Fold this sequence. Notes:
Strand order of the largest sheet of chain A: 3-6-2-1-9-11-12-10
Number of strands of chain A: 18
Strand content of chain A: 25-35%
Structural class of chain A: alpha/beta
Mean pLDDT of chain A: 88
Number of domains of chain A: 2
CATH class of the largest domain in chain A: Alpha Beta
Oligomer: homodimer
Number of helices of chain A: 11
Amino acid sequence: MLIVQKYGGTSVGSIERIKEVAKRVAKTAAAGNRVVVVVSAMSGETDKLIGLASQLSPNPSDREMDLLLSSGERITSALTAIAIQEQGHKAMALTGRQMGIITDKVHTRARIERITGTKAGKALDEGYVVVVAGFQGITGEDDVTTLGRGGSDLSAVAVAAALCADLCEIYTDVDGVYTADPRIVPDARKMERISHEEMLELASLGSKVLQTRSVEFAMKYNVPVVVRSSFNNNPGTLVTKEETDMEDVVVSGVAHDKNQAKITVMGVPDKPGLAAILFKGIADANILVDMIVQNVSSDAKSTDISFTVPRTDGRKALQLTMKIAASMGAKGAVMREDIAKISIVGVGMRTHSGVAARMFETLSEHGINIIMISTSEIKISCIIADKFTELAVRVLHDAFGPATAPAVSAARVKQTGGKSSSGKKK
Amino acid sequence: MLIVQKYGGTSVGSIERIKEVAKRVAKTAAAGNRVVVVVSAMSGETDKLIGLASQLSPNPSDREMDLLLSSGERITSALTAIAIQEQGHKAMALTGRQMGIITDKVHTRARIERITGTKAGKALDEGYVVVVAGFQGITGEDDVTTLGRGGSDLSAVAVAAALCADLCEIYTDVDGVYTADPRIVPDARKMERISHEEMLELASLGSKVLQTRSVEFAMKYNVPVVVRSSFNNNPGTLVTKEETDMEDVVVSGVAHDKNQAKITVMGVPDKPGLAAILFKGIADANILVDMIVQNVSSDAKSTDISFTVPRTDGRKALQLTMKIAASMGAKGAVMREDIAKISIVGVGMRTHSGVAARMFETLSEHGINIIMISTSEIKISCIIADKFTELAVRVLHDAFGPATAPAVSAARVKQTGGKSSSGKKK
């Protein structure tokens, strides 16, 4: 088998940890596999470099930041190769460029265009373990780029796709993907499998196990990805293409995100194009808007628009919104910060009705008021008061029930209620 | 003018220092010059990386060490470019590879084969200050190499040669090249000029102002080099090709080196080839032999061979020598570690007789016994007991006299005695 193993910052966070990684890699290679290792910077290293640059400039140039930050992964790749050699295996460290990871020219968040991988292929044929510096690539003009936060996941999946690897293992500090945060729900279970689509929704919901773009890449090129811990030998969670039996499970997981603020613009005149002006202004300030709801006001000539942003961007977004609101003749804007987003995710929702109703009912039974609602094909999200976050996660996890799931798919949350009788698989 | 400025580890040792460097570069550029900056790793950074690798392996692979160590200069180049941008000038950081520094494949001490410099030339034409990561290059097979300790000096001189720069300024933590160590000789003077040949002898004598290979390179390609301090605005010392008036000065400087150990092999049978076996064995262990003296023994059938090595390699060299001595039927080997090397250097020696005699006489007058002597065309070195080091430097500096030198060449040590009347320039 050709296996790509990606180790994150905490997995290579110290010399001792790098030695442990080397042992795991050597064991995988000794079992007869060809192995490509993709490494992140040692934890804390990237932040240290960002700190140095910020002492020099409030707004350092993206091109030079990429050169600076790519050094962290280069250092880890060299150290990891040395550690593997010390285990008695041939190992060769490659930078993103030497791996042939060609990207576009968008510094600090470049997109991978193609991977040549010539040097890696030759090294693998010669019996080397190849250790690739993650998070980085190079433009056609020979400039170093980085792939954005969590970009090493993307490096690993893309390298796996380019080399037609049999498996891409993402090693991190958690055992895999859970049905809910185990710190909140003690009987949350690790999933054996999850579909790419579900993983995408969970990743974008703040469950930081896998970077969103790496999931998209894995889905597009059908790369089998396993998320597992480098601190133990537990099997992890397989992220894979959707299989028919996955639809038996309506809700795969319950996610929450406390980094939310809600802004409401009141009395927006009912004229075309005003929403576009508002959200373009906010996007130009590099603030990510998540949910958007437009309420028809009692006064038919104006409307209210509410949206959520990361709480850390809240004040900035509010100031901007007030300015734009004034310019368009709206009545004003207010912000609410004591909120959280609760979501349930599952491909089975597509074929099961009544899931949303059951979610709202469950929250209501426990006195939790719903402030905003947003839905997609496989996800339902509600904004609630953040003091109810833990309660909401627990009651939804109970309602959609992993505790009662049969052993064969113990890792997934089965719908146990009777309200979803219209599913085609039933 | 096109000016190459190289800043060493202490000159870029902190964020504050990098800001100072950026100001100096910006000032040079604002004066209408095109500027290429070559930077070392921040002081301590290279040792930190070596320390990490040594925790993983007693003998890490050279190829991966080069990838590891080259990161230090990349980080400084990015930070320095950001700092220059903050001064309001366009700046672009380039790695050794992006500068097109092509080397041979000898990792950890590669030799520069050629410099393409295409990207740098284009950037200069577009008004950028170019900031090059020193100490590193790339092989024809796309592997990262480093140029050995002090290699950033070589990067700077080679880049200056490749770009036909008008001047190469080497910024360090001393004001320039002195006639002797000012900590020992209070009236030691900074030289205005020194010939490449003299600088070579001083560099190899442990006066660590300029790396030896960079001087050879400057001599070969006739690059004007100035050594000066990044901590003040003093003019520094110009290292230049020999000019005729330089021969008026017999002794340019007095150097000393306490990192010396002397090993004597006694009773070596008088057979051809034995010296070759001895010194090949020591060279194979990567120990640099400095002076070699063969004494004819009273017993005509055998001889004694003495040589010096860096004191830090002394024990290792002695053990090796004893083994080789036994195998060749010699009587044994002994080491003496309490020694130092004192040297006088000057191109004027070629045309002035009696210099050696005056040196020996001066040492003798002060009761300093000479243990070994070695001479070249422009240098005389003596091994003495190391307790006499400071005394010897002072009396030789007095004897060859910078204190009485005329103002026009105040920085150089004029011969003041009457023993050198045969010089052709007299």
